[in-house]
Q: What sequence folds into this?
Protein backbone atom coordinates (compact mmCIF):
# COMPACT_ATOMS: atom_id res chain seq x y z
CA UNK A 1 0.00 0.00 0.00
CA UNK A 2 1.34 3.44 -0.95
CA UNK A 3 2.25 5.83 1.86
CA UNK A 4 -0.03 8.82 2.28
CA UNK A 5 2.72 10.81 4.00
CA UNK A 6 5.00 11.27 1.00
CA UNK A 7 4.39 12.04 -2.66
CA UNK A 8 7.17 11.05 -5.06
CA UNK A 9 7.22 11.77 -8.79
CA UNK A 10 6.42 8.81 -11.05
CA UNK A 11 9.42 7.01 -12.63
CA UNK A 12 8.51 8.10 -16.17
CA UNK A 13 11.92 9.57 -16.90
CA UNK A 14 13.79 6.53 -15.57
CA UNK A 15 11.63 4.19 -17.64
CA UNK A 16 12.56 6.26 -20.68
CA UNK A 17 16.26 6.09 -19.72
CA UNK A 18 15.96 2.32 -19.30
CA UNK A 19 14.47 1.96 -22.78
CA UNK A 20 17.26 4.20 -24.13
CA UNK A 21 19.88 2.03 -22.42
CA UNK A 22 18.24 -1.17 -23.61
CA UNK A 23 18.30 0.02 -27.23
CA UNK A 24 21.95 1.10 -26.92
CA UNK A 25 23.36 -2.12 -25.43
CA UNK A 26 23.42 -4.06 -28.71
CA UNK A 27 25.14 -1.23 -30.59
CA UNK A 28 27.47 1.11 -28.74
CA UNK A 29 28.41 -0.38 -25.37
CA UNK A 30 31.14 -2.86 -24.50
CA UNK A 31 29.06 -5.96 -25.30
CA UNK A 32 29.04 -5.61 -29.10
CA UNK A 33 32.69 -4.50 -29.02
CA UNK A 34 33.67 -7.72 -27.23
CA UNK A 35 31.66 -9.77 -29.73
CA UNK A 36 33.40 -8.04 -32.64
CA UNK A 37 36.81 -8.67 -31.08
CA UNK A 38 36.05 -12.42 -30.86
CA UNK A 39 35.50 -12.53 -34.62
CA UNK A 40 38.79 -10.90 -35.55
CA UNK A 41 41.95 -12.99 -36.07
CA UNK A 42 43.98 -12.44 -32.87
CA UNK A 43 47.19 -12.03 -34.88
CA UNK A 44 45.58 -9.25 -36.93
CA UNK A 45 44.23 -7.64 -33.78
CA UNK A 46 47.59 -7.72 -32.03
CA UNK A 47 49.39 -6.29 -35.05
CA UNK A 48 46.87 -3.48 -35.47
CA UNK A 49 47.00 -2.55 -31.79
CA UNK A 50 50.76 -2.11 -32.09
CA UNK A 51 50.36 -0.13 -35.32
CA UNK A 52 47.50 2.20 -34.41
CA UNK A 53 47.53 2.60 -30.60
CA UNK A 54 49.89 5.17 -28.99
CA UNK A 55 52.82 3.65 -27.11
CA UNK A 56 52.31 5.76 -23.98
CA UNK A 57 48.67 4.69 -23.79
CA UNK A 58 49.58 1.02 -24.12
CA UNK A 59 52.19 1.46 -21.39
CA UNK A 60 49.55 2.86 -19.02
CA UNK A 61 47.39 -0.22 -19.59
CA UNK A 62 50.23 -2.62 -18.72
CA UNK A 63 49.67 -4.31 -15.39
CA UNK A 64 45.92 -3.52 -15.37
CA UNK A 65 42.99 -5.78 -16.15
CA UNK A 66 41.97 -3.52 -19.04
CA UNK A 67 42.52 -5.12 -22.41
CA UNK A 68 44.16 -2.93 -25.04
CA UNK A 69 41.47 -3.70 -27.62
CA UNK A 70 38.71 -2.53 -25.25
CA UNK A 71 40.29 0.93 -25.23
CA UNK A 72 41.90 1.49 -28.60
CA UNK A 73 40.24 1.24 -32.01
CA UNK A 74 41.52 -0.98 -34.82
CA UNK A 75 40.44 -1.11 -38.47
CA UNK A 76 39.61 -4.81 -38.24
CA UNK A 77 37.20 -4.33 -35.33
CA UNK A 78 35.51 -1.28 -36.86
CA UNK A 79 35.05 -3.13 -40.13
CA UNK A 80 33.66 -6.15 -38.29
CA UNK A 81 31.16 -4.01 -36.34
CA UNK A 82 31.00 -0.38 -37.53
CA UNK A 83 28.51 0.63 -34.82
CA UNK A 84 31.20 0.36 -32.13
CA UNK A 85 32.46 3.71 -33.34
CA UNK A 86 29.76 4.88 -30.95
CA UNK A 87 31.54 3.09 -28.10
CA UNK A 88 34.73 5.09 -28.67
CA UNK A 89 32.68 8.27 -28.93
CA UNK A 90 31.06 7.52 -25.57
CA UNK A 91 34.42 6.65 -24.00
CA UNK A 92 35.69 10.07 -25.09
CA UNK A 93 32.58 11.74 -23.63
CA UNK A 94 31.50 13.42 -26.87
CA UNK A 95 27.86 13.88 -27.86
CA UNK A 96 26.65 12.76 -31.27
CA UNK A 97 25.92 16.38 -32.15
CA UNK A 98 29.52 17.44 -31.42
CA UNK A 99 31.14 14.29 -32.83
CA UNK A 100 29.50 13.97 -36.24
CA UNK A 101 30.19 17.43 -37.61
CA UNK A 102 31.88 18.86 -40.68
CA UNK A 103 34.50 20.55 -38.52
CA UNK A 104 35.49 17.21 -36.95
CA UNK A 105 35.57 15.55 -40.36
CA UNK A 106 33.20 12.88 -39.06
CA UNK A 107 29.82 13.97 -40.40
CA UNK A 108 29.90 11.32 -43.14
CA UNK A 109 30.69 8.58 -40.62
CA UNK A 110 27.44 8.83 -38.65
CA UNK A 111 26.10 5.86 -40.64
CA UNK A 112 28.62 3.66 -38.85
CA UNK A 113 26.95 4.23 -35.49
CA UNK A 114 23.38 4.67 -36.72
CA UNK A 115 23.24 1.96 -39.37
CA UNK A 116 26.32 -0.20 -38.67
CA UNK A 117 27.41 0.71 -42.18
CA UNK A 118 30.73 1.82 -43.63
CA UNK A 119 30.09 3.42 -46.98
CA UNK A 120 32.54 2.09 -49.63
CA UNK A 121 34.03 5.52 -50.27
CA UNK A 122 34.90 5.86 -46.58
CA UNK A 123 36.51 2.48 -46.03
CA UNK A 124 40.03 3.57 -47.09
CA UNK A 125 39.91 6.22 -44.34
CA UNK A 126 39.25 3.78 -41.49
CA UNK A 127 42.95 3.41 -40.55
CA UNK A 128 43.30 7.20 -40.25
CA UNK A 129 40.09 7.30 -38.23
CA UNK A 130 41.59 4.78 -35.80
CA UNK A 131 44.75 6.89 -35.44
CA UNK A 132 42.68 9.99 -34.65
CA UNK A 133 40.46 8.15 -32.16
CA UNK A 134 43.40 6.53 -30.44
CA UNK A 135 45.32 9.78 -30.15
CA UNK A 136 42.38 11.33 -28.26
CA UNK A 137 41.76 8.17 -26.20
CA UNK A 138 45.47 8.01 -25.36
CA UNK A 139 45.33 11.51 -23.88
CA UNK A 140 42.34 10.41 -21.80
CA UNK A 141 43.92 7.19 -20.56
CA UNK A 142 47.19 8.87 -19.65
CA UNK A 143 45.31 11.44 -17.55
CA UNK A 144 43.29 8.94 -15.48
CA UNK A 145 44.76 7.71 -12.17
CA UNK A 146 45.89 4.08 -12.71
CA UNK A 147 44.09 2.91 -9.58
CA UNK A 148 40.65 3.71 -11.02
CA UNK A 149 41.39 2.97 -14.68
CA UNK A 150 39.52 -0.33 -14.88
CA UNK A 151 36.33 1.09 -13.38
CA UNK A 152 36.62 4.30 -15.36
CA UNK A 153 36.92 2.56 -18.73
CA UNK A 154 33.88 0.50 -17.83
CA UNK A 155 31.77 3.37 -16.50
CA UNK A 156 32.69 6.46 -18.54
CA UNK A 157 30.74 5.33 -21.64
CA UNK A 158 27.68 4.75 -19.45
CA UNK A 159 28.02 8.24 -18.00
CA UNK A 160 28.12 9.77 -21.47
CA UNK A 161 25.19 7.65 -22.58
CA UNK A 162 23.26 8.88 -19.53
CA UNK A 163 23.81 12.49 -20.58
CA UNK A 164 22.68 11.57 -24.10
CA UNK A 165 19.54 9.92 -22.71
CA UNK A 166 18.83 13.00 -20.59
CA UNK A 167 19.08 15.23 -23.64
CA UNK A 168 16.78 12.93 -25.56
CA UNK A 169 14.27 13.00 -22.69
CA UNK A 170 14.36 16.80 -22.60
CA UNK A 171 13.76 16.93 -26.34
CA UNK A 172 10.80 14.60 -25.93
CA UNK A 173 9.34 16.81 -23.19
CA UNK A 174 9.84 19.87 -25.39
CA UNK A 175 8.23 18.23 -28.42
CA UNK A 176 5.26 17.09 -26.34
CA UNK A 177 4.77 20.59 -24.92
CA UNK A 178 4.95 22.14 -28.39
CA UNK A 179 2.26 19.81 -29.74
CA UNK A 180 0.03 20.41 -26.71
CA UNK A 181 0.26 24.20 -27.03
CA UNK A 182 -0.19 24.12 -30.79
CA UNK A 183 -3.30 21.95 -30.53
CA UNK A 184 -4.77 24.18 -27.81
CA UNK A 185 -4.25 27.29 -29.97
CA UNK A 186 -5.74 25.54 -32.99
CA UNK A 187 -8.87 24.83 -30.98
CA UNK A 188 -9.12 28.50 -30.01
CA UNK A 189 -8.95 29.54 -33.67
CA UNK A 190 -11.34 26.84 -34.86
CA UNK A 191 -13.91 27.99 -32.31
CA UNK A 192 -13.67 31.63 -33.43
CA UNK A 193 -16.31 31.14 -36.13
CA UNK A 194 -14.16 31.48 -39.26
CA UNK A 195 -13.80 28.99 -42.07
CA UNK A 196 -10.49 27.25 -41.76
CA UNK A 197 -8.23 24.79 -43.54
CA UNK A 198 -6.56 22.31 -41.21
CA UNK A 199 -3.48 20.71 -42.81
CA UNK A 200 -2.32 19.06 -39.59
CA UNK A 201 0.90 21.00 -39.10
CA UNK A 202 -0.82 24.26 -40.04
CA UNK A 203 -4.20 25.94 -39.71
CA UNK A 204 -5.19 28.71 -42.13
CA UNK A 205 -8.13 31.12 -41.99
CA UNK A 206 -9.26 34.18 -43.92
CA UNK A 207 -9.69 36.75 -41.16
CA UNK A 208 -12.18 39.58 -40.77
CA UNK A 209 -10.00 41.86 -42.94
CA UNK A 210 -9.96 39.31 -45.74
CA UNK A 211 -6.32 38.40 -45.17
CA UNK A 212 -5.05 34.82 -45.17
CA UNK A 213 -3.36 34.04 -41.85
CA UNK A 214 -1.75 30.75 -40.78
CA UNK A 215 -0.81 29.23 -37.43
CA UNK A 216 1.87 26.57 -38.05
CA UNK A 217 4.38 24.28 -36.42
CA UNK A 218 7.91 25.20 -37.45
CA UNK A 219 11.42 23.98 -36.70
CA UNK A 220 12.58 27.40 -35.51
CA UNK A 221 10.58 29.00 -33.86
CA UNK A 222 8.37 26.19 -32.53
CA UNK A 223 5.13 27.83 -33.68
CA UNK A 224 4.65 30.80 -35.95
CA UNK A 225 1.83 33.01 -37.15
CA UNK A 226 2.19 34.09 -40.78
CA UNK A 227 0.14 36.46 -42.90
CA UNK A 228 0.03 36.18 -46.69
CA UNK A 229 0.05 39.38 -48.71
CA UNK A 230 0.06 38.74 -52.43
CA UNK A 231 2.56 35.97 -53.03
CA UNK A 232 4.62 36.65 -49.89
CA UNK A 233 4.32 35.35 -46.32
CA UNK A 234 5.13 37.73 -43.49
CA UNK A 235 6.04 36.39 -40.05
CA UNK A 236 3.75 38.10 -37.58
CA UNK A 237 4.66 36.21 -34.40
CA UNK A 238 7.40 33.77 -33.40
CA UNK A 239 6.37 31.55 -30.47
CA UNK A 240 9.02 29.60 -28.56
CA UNK A 241 7.76 26.83 -26.25
CA UNK A 242 9.95 25.45 -23.48
CA UNK A 243 8.25 22.51 -21.79
CA UNK A 244 10.80 21.62 -19.10
CA UNK A 245 9.71 22.20 -15.53
CA UNK A 246 13.05 21.95 -13.67
CA UNK A 247 13.93 25.38 -12.41
CA UNK A 248 17.69 24.69 -12.46
CA UNK A 249 17.75 24.60 -16.26
CA UNK A 250 15.32 27.42 -16.95
CA UNK A 251 18.01 29.99 -17.79
CA UNK A 252 19.48 27.70 -20.44
CA UNK A 253 16.01 27.34 -21.93
CA UNK A 254 15.59 31.13 -21.99
CA UNK A 255 18.92 31.40 -23.80
CA UNK A 256 17.75 28.83 -26.36
CA UNK A 257 14.58 30.86 -26.88
CA UNK A 258 16.67 33.96 -27.51
CA UNK A 259 18.69 32.20 -30.23
CA UNK A 260 15.48 31.14 -31.94
CA UNK A 261 13.97 34.59 -31.69
CA UNK A 262 17.12 36.13 -33.18
CA UNK A 263 16.70 33.83 -36.20
CA UNK A 264 13.04 34.81 -36.47
CA UNK A 265 14.01 38.48 -36.20
CA UNK A 266 16.36 38.05 -39.14
CA UNK A 267 13.37 36.71 -41.08
CA UNK A 268 11.41 39.87 -40.33
CA UNK A 269 9.21 38.69 -37.44
CA UNK A 270 7.25 41.40 -35.65
CA UNK A 271 6.35 39.72 -32.37
CA UNK A 272 8.43 37.41 -30.14
CA UNK A 273 6.73 35.33 -27.44
CA UNK A 274 8.16 32.71 -25.07
CA UNK A 275 6.12 30.11 -23.20
CA UNK A 276 8.18 28.79 -20.28
CA UNK A 277 7.90 27.68 -16.64
CA UNK A 278 8.14 31.20 -15.29
CA UNK A 279 6.00 31.19 -12.13
CA UNK A 280 8.95 30.56 -9.75
CA UNK A 281 11.54 32.56 -11.65
CA UNK A 282 12.90 36.08 -11.46
CA UNK A 283 11.43 37.58 -14.62
CA UNK A 284 14.13 40.24 -14.73
CA UNK A 285 16.75 37.50 -15.16
CA UNK A 286 14.71 35.78 -17.85
CA UNK A 287 14.30 39.05 -19.70
CA UNK A 288 18.06 39.60 -19.52
CA UNK A 289 18.66 36.15 -21.03
CA UNK A 290 16.12 36.67 -23.81
CA UNK A 291 15.86 40.41 -24.39
CA UNK A 292 14.13 39.82 -27.73
CA UNK A 293 11.14 38.18 -26.02
CA UNK A 294 8.32 40.72 -25.82
CA UNK A 295 5.70 38.57 -24.10
CA UNK A 296 6.21 35.80 -21.52
CA UNK A 297 3.60 33.13 -20.71
CA UNK A 298 3.76 30.49 -18.00
CA UNK A 299 3.72 26.98 -19.47
CA UNK A 300 1.51 25.55 -16.72
CA UNK A 301 -1.26 28.10 -17.36
CA UNK A 302 -1.06 27.29 -21.06
CA UNK A 303 -1.10 23.52 -20.51
CA UNK A 304 -4.18 23.84 -18.32
CA UNK A 305 -5.80 26.30 -20.76
CA UNK A 306 -6.71 28.35 -17.71
CA UNK A 307 -5.30 31.26 -15.76
CA UNK A 308 -3.99 34.74 -16.43
CA UNK A 309 -1.23 33.76 -18.85
CA UNK A 310 -3.49 31.50 -20.88
CA UNK A 311 -6.01 34.30 -21.26
CA UNK A 312 -3.23 36.68 -22.23
CA UNK A 313 -1.87 34.24 -24.83
CA UNK A 314 -5.29 33.70 -26.36
CA UNK A 315 -5.77 37.45 -26.61
CA UNK A 316 -2.42 37.93 -28.35
CA UNK A 317 -3.11 35.10 -30.77
CA UNK A 318 -6.47 36.56 -31.68
CA UNK A 319 -4.88 39.95 -32.36
CA UNK A 320 -2.07 38.43 -34.45
CA UNK A 321 -4.54 36.30 -36.41
CA UNK A 322 -6.90 39.26 -36.87
CA UNK A 323 -9.93 37.47 -35.38
A:
Amino acid sequence: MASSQFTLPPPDRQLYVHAFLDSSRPKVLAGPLKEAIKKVDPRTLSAEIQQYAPADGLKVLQGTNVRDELVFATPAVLREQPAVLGYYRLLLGVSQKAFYTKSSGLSRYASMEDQALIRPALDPNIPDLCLALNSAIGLLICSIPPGTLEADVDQLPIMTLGAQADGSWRNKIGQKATIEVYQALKDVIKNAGYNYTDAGASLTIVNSSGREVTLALAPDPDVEIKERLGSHDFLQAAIEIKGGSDNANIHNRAGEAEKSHQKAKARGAKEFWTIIASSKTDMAKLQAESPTTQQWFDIEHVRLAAGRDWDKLVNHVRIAMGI
